[in-house]
Amino acid sequence: MLQVENISKSFGGIRAVDGCSMTVERGSITGLIGPNGSGKTTLFNLITGFYPPDLGQIRFDDRPIHGLLPSRICHRGIGRTFQMTRLFWKMTVLENMIVPVRQVGWKTLFSRGVKTHEEERALELLETVGLVGYRNEEARRLSFGQQKLLEFAAVLMADPELILLDEPAGGVNPVMIEKTMSFVEELNRRGKTFLVVEHNMRLVMDLCQYVVVLDHGQKIGEGEPAQVQNDPIVLEAYLGSANHAGA
Amino acid sequence: MRLLRVPPWAWIGGGLIALLAFPIVQRGQYYQHLMVMTMMAAVLASSWNILGGYTGYTSLGHAAFFGLGGYLVALAHNQFGWHPFISTWFLGLVVMGVALILGWIALRTHGSAFVVVTIAMVFIFRIVALNLGEITNGARGLTQPRPGWGGVQWSPEIMKIPFHYIMLALLCLTVLVSWRIRLSKFGLGLVAIREDEGKAEAVGIDALVYKVLAFGISAYFVAVAGGIYSYFFTYIDPQFIFNIFTSVTMVLIAILGGRGTLWGPVLGAFIMEPLGDWLVGTFGGTQIHLAVFGAILLGVMLFMPQGILPSLSDWLKRLTRSRGAGRLGPEPGAGQDASSAAKT
């Protein structure tokens, strides 16, 4: 579904992503792991068009998407969350859900901001993540974990086929993590594909069917979680620090 | 708290009736003139607010559209005899087209760079007007025939009245469009861009398209006002009409009343214009009114950082009901009010 081919991106003298290739299969939950600074978030930003790649290609459904604007890539069917949750802080929870709804044509642009059927769908999703009671609160009033859930739920409003999650469990309490995980699994059963950056190793091993390991901007390993866990190169580069982090 | 129980339509209806009746009740030339200028300030600030308030891009270039509207209307009147009251509506569309092109270039910049680019627009337009002497008459400016209709000139006693009603119509149209935008998908996208442009892009908003469109629409009403203004004074020159102070006034009025709100710019205009006029009248041609404006603006920023209208409505809300629970920690990015779409 998504093919990253030999992609590179440098910032000044630092090669954040260096000739990296990877594939995300349709219907999978693919994990992207690696030590801090290994280029995971940069790769996310390359896939979603926030940075143009220096070299290489990215294909989504066999069509190239590198060099497109983030909004166009979103329209092609890729949604994302941010490591540092980004919401429209002073808009209400409901408005945060409505903004991502895809608009086509001039007529809809000047139609009502919040349509009934959109609101119904938004409330349904908010119900699922347990935020329906906050619908008219400003997004900044939510707790950190709730904000992450809201960002995730809002991404779903655009109905993307592939969803990129950047540390969905980072800084979130265990109950929220469980909630997020079961939500991801449920959506996956319904056909959504996921690419997940995560530091919580237990979560990655439980959730993902396939794992890609990055280090210094390069892919150093990939495979099923059990396979990767026993790969000596990966262990050396990564799992040492992951154990240290308490996984 | 009885004020709160008056429904919004009653406020709007009351205001409209008062403005409709104004020139009939108030025969004084001075007050009629002041009212036309006040409504024009409300049009300018409301129109500016569509870009500067909803989208958060501070343009100091709107004087360029004001002046261009004025020049086009004056030229069309002198060359082809088009009556300004009619021509200004569609010559405004020409200015809007120019604004769409300029916006498409200028809106690639952000923050202070955008402010500087838009200031440059005003100076470029002024220089062009000064140097295209054969068309614009250069620094000598353009004079139009005294206002009238169908070959009959309006006598000085009734001269202001047609301007009052056309400006009122323009004000109603501007507020109506601003309101429609605020409640639309488009408006929701504009506010999202103000809140976090990168995030808006990530969820599929074509930020550049939205911004350019907002720029064009917000230039339109300013240009129409410029056209009416040039006929009202029957004389324009480049220094006078392509003036950065016109832009600054729009911004100040919008910030004073409440940037990003529907009625804030209107409220701001009805405070600033009469006040400015009173200060000039009382202290003469000194610069003291500028100093007083500065002081007022400082006071507002200090005590009502969101502007008068949002601060007042917050204050009233707090008086009428205590807010429920929720995380009440430090508020990220306190500043202008982003309020819900339903807020009018």
SS strand fraction of chain A: 15-25%
User: Strand content of the residues of chain B, in percent?
Assistant: under 5%
Dominant shape of chain A: globular
Q: What is the approximate shape of chain B?
A: globular
| Coarse structural class of chain A | alpha/beta
**Stretches with pLDDT under 50, minimum 5 residues of chain A:** 242-247
| Largest beta-sheet characterization of chain A | 6 strands, mixed
Number of helices of chain A: 10
Portion of residues within helices of chain B:
over 70%
Task: Tell me the total number of β-strands of chain A.
Answer: 10
Q: How far apart are the termini of chain B?
A: 19 Å
Strand order of the largest sheet of chain B: 1-4
Average pLDDT figure of chain B: 88
Oligomer description: heterodimer
Largest interface, chains and sizes? A-B, 41 and 34 residues
**Count of DSSP helices of chain B?**
16
Under CATH, the topology of chain B can be stated as: ABC transporter involved in vitamin B12 uptake, BtuC
How many domains of chain B? 1
CATH architecture of the largest domain in chain A: 3-Layer(aba) Sandwich
- CATH class wording of the largest domain in chain A: Alpha Beta
In short:
The complex is a heterodimer of chains A (247) and B (344). Chain A has helices at 40-47, 70-76, 93-98, 105-109, 116-129, 144-157, 174-189, 201-207, 225-229, 232-244, and strands at residues 2-11, 14-24, 29-33, 55-60, 63-64, 78-80, 162-166, 193-197, 210-215, 218-223. Chain A is α/β, with parallel strands linked by helices.
Could you outline the blueprint of secondary structure elements for this entry?
The complex is a heterodimer of chains A (247) and B (344).
Chain A: E1 2-11, E2 14-24, E3 29-33, H1 40-47, E4 55-60, E5 63-64, H2 70-76, E6 78-80, H3 93-98, H4 105-109, H5 116-129, H6 144-157, E7 162-166, H7 174-189, E8 193-197, H8 201-207, E9 210-215, E10 218-223, H9 225-229, H10 232-244
Chain B: H1 2-5, H2 8-25, H3 29-52, H4 62-80, H5 84-106, H6 111-131, H7 133-136, E1 142-143, E2 148-149, E3 152-153, H8 160-183, H9 185-195, H10 197-202, H11 207-233, E4 235-236, H12 238-241, H13 244-257, H14 264-283, H15 288-303, H16 308-320
Antiparallel strand pairs in B: 1-4, 2-3
